């Protein structure tokens, strides 16, 4: 199969004829029959509790995170590299297992497409993976919206009924402030027209009229809770602490106050079990949780990592977007919750990405890429190295030595690749060229060997900040040390939220989970390279009581993306003879 001549979906369909059955994957992993819950022939959910209890005394494998430079809007291939690395590690005799996030319907049906990887480095079955898998995101959407149903109905009843009538219905007045609602409705599509809406139009039995809106499902706090929970008890407890609104005195109203947390968790009962699929070359891949890194946590689950580290000698996970947001959250949030320390971080870069940072023409999703990105231009590559250097420095601040992976495109010129390798050699940083997209595992052997070598280094892993410093200090450290800003500026609303957090004993020591554009180290997506002399603007701060994190909203970032004029859904269809989906990428 030649990926230059064949689209991803055709490569996947051809490979799916030779996929391992789920029971074959189970046996190769050393799992018991009762520990794998089949969803058809090729997908299964893992009974993590029994697996982890049985393997309690087993040693852990090496822990590898995959991140990237600041990407073009087309992405630089983190998921492809993650899958390719698994295939490459297997080629050199290792026993790898991966953990990736479940793709959201937003990008799948929009511009970016699925997150299955690409070429000869993708996971299968592609259709199942891309179109809902085992229903985890649907369940999260339903549980999130059930919280909104409980909240809006309580507001209506409290507005329409006296305390005596409420008491007769076994309800206590919560005195919810309809102008201070902290979540919206959820939908797993990019629907910009639903960002701000008015609900409750009609009579008094049609709900309370108020301003509201939608967020994309993967930005739901429930998704963050799934990513960081360590078991069902932890998951259930966190669901009950989700803040949905505030009362008129400013006190938080939780799902527990609405008595909807139990029903929400019931909807999510199977979601906490990780999903098991495979690469094109048959390596096991866990799929669990799916938050974006620009507007959410950007990590697959801790539970998946616990399992992967027990079952494989190398466990490879992937953090969303660039190291400034995805890796930073992996480092300072996910690793803090899991108490796991990574052995290596792979930093994905491309000639194309460095050309963009070196002054290349604007890259617009859905439109043909300028020929300067596919023709030799060493000057642009050299100028774009500053962005790569910034990301190398970010990873080094965690105490980990990065491995730079040049994700090779078939249009790259050897002299362009040499510039990147020489620059890394001057810094004393490992660098590998990987042709996994074009050649699968064979093309990733150089990368796999570099990762194995890096994992033997003694790491001095350390967090960027201590738990016990104030939130504004955490935000300022991230702004200056990670993004390269000169300082931070808060709107009145953000300052008000910050003051609330500093006064509240439960919020005071929350970690910071920035919501920021992934297209620049700064808040402005048009600023490429390594911006200097700027201030980070904080527009709002969301408080996630269940996840135990604060989410500073930076600049114009939105929790509901928009659909472009030439979305992917225009190309997706079904073959009415075979029943197979075509056009996914």
Overall number of strands: 25
The gross shape turns out to be: globular
Classify the secondary structure makeup into a structural class. Answer: alpha/beta
CATH architectural category of the largest domain: 3-Layer(aba) Sandwich
Low-confidence stretches: none
Can you summarize this structure?
The longest helix is centred in the N-terminal third of the chain and has 25 residues, at 136-160. Helix 4 (78-91) packs across helix 19 and helix 7 packs antiparallel against helix 11. Helices cover 35% and strands 18% of the residues.
Record keyword descriptors for this entry.
21 helices; about 20% strand; four-stranded mixed sheet; alpha/beta; Formyltetrahydrofolate synthetase, domain 3; Domain 2, N(10)-formyltetrahydrofolate synthetase; globular; about 575 residues; twelve-stranded mixed sheet; Rossmann fold
Protein described:
The longest helix is centred in the first third of the chain and has 25 residues, at 136-160. By secondary structure, this protein is of the alpha/beta class. The chain has three domains: 8-135 and 271-455, P-loop containing nucleotide triphosphate hydrolases (Rossmann fold, 3-Layer(aba) Sandwich); 136-267, Domain 2, N(10)-formyltetrahydrofolate synthetase (2-Layer Sandwich), CATH 3.30.1510; 471-554, Formyltetrahydrofolate synthetase, domain 3. A hairpin with a 4-residue loop joins strand 12 (243-247) and strand 13. The chain contains 21 helices and 25 strands. It is 35% helix and 18% strand. Helix 7 packs antiparallel against helix 11.
């Amino acid at each position: 199969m030649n990926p230059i001549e064949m689209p991803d979906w055709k490569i996947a369909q051809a490979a799916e004829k030779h996929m391992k059955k789920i029971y074959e994957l189970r046996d190769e992993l050393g799992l018991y029959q009762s520990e794998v819950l089949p969803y058809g022939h090729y997908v299964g959910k893992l009974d993590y509790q029994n697996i982890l209890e049985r393997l309690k005394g087993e040693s852990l494998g090496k822990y590898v995170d995959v991140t990237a430079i600041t990407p073009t809007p087309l992405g630089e291939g983190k998921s492809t590299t993650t899958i390719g690395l698994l295939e490459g590690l297997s080629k050199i005799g290792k026993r790898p297992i991966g953990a990736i996030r479940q793709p959201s319907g937003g990008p799948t049906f929009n511009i970016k497409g699925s997150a299955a990887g690409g070429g000869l480095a993708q996971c299968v079955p592609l259709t199942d993976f891309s179109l809902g898998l085992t229903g985890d995101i649907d369940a999260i959407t339903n549980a999130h919206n059930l919280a909104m149903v409980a909240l809006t109905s309580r507001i209506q009843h409290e507005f329409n009924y006296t305390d005596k009538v409420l008491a007769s219905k076994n309800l206590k007045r919560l005195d919810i402030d309809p102008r201070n609602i902290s979540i919206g409705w959820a939908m797993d599509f990019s629907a910009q027209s639903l960002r701000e809406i008015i609900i409750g139009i009609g009579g008094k039995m049609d709900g309370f009229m108020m301003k509201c809106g939608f967020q994309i499902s993967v930005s739901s706090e429930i998704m963050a809770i799934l990513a960081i929970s360590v078991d069902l008890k932890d998951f259930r407890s966190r669901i009950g602490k989700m803040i949905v609104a505030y009362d008129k005195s400013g006190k938080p109203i939780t799902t527990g106050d609405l008595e909807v947390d139990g029903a929400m968790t019931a909807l999510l009962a199977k979601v906490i079990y990780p999903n098991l699929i495979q690469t094109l070359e048959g390596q096991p891949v866990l799929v669990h949780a799916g938050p974006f890194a620009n507007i959410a946590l950007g990590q697959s689950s801790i539970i998946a990592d616990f399992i992967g580290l027990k079952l494989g000698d190398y466990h490879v996970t992937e953090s969303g977007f660039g190291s400034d947001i995805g890796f930073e959250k992996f480092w300072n949030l996910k690793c803090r919750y899991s108490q796991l320390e990574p052995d290596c971080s792979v930093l994905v870069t491309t000639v194309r990405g460095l050309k963009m940072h070196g002054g290349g023409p604007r890259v617009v999703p859905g439109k043909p890429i300028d020929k300067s990105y596919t023709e030799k231009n060493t000057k642009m590559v050299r100028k774009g190295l500053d962005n790569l250097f910034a990301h190398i420095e970010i990873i080094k601040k965690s105490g980990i030595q990065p491995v730079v992976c040049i994700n090779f495109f078939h249009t790259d010129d050897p002299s362009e690749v040499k510039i990147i390798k020489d620059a890394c050699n001057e810094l004393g940083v490992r660098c590998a060229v990987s042709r996994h997209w074009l050649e699968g595992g064979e093309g990733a052997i150089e990368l796999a060997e570099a990762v194995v070598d890096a994992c033997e280094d003694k790491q001095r892993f350390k967090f960027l900040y201590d738990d016990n410093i104030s939130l504004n200090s955490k935000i300022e450290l991230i702004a200056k040390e990670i993004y390269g800003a000169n300082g931070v500026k808060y709107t009145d609303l953000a300052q008000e939220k910050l003051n609330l957090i500093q006064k509240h004993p439960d919020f005071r020591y929350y970690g910071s989970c920035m919501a920021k554009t992934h297209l620049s180290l700064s808040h402005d997506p048009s600023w490429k390279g390594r911006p200097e002399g700027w201030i980070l603007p904080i527009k709002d701060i969301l408080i996630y009581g269940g996840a135990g994190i604060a989410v500073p909203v930076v600049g114009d970032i939105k929790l509901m993306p928009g659909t472009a004029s030439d979305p992917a859904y225009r190309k997706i269809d079904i073959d009415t003879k075979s029943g197979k989906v075509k056009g996914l990428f």
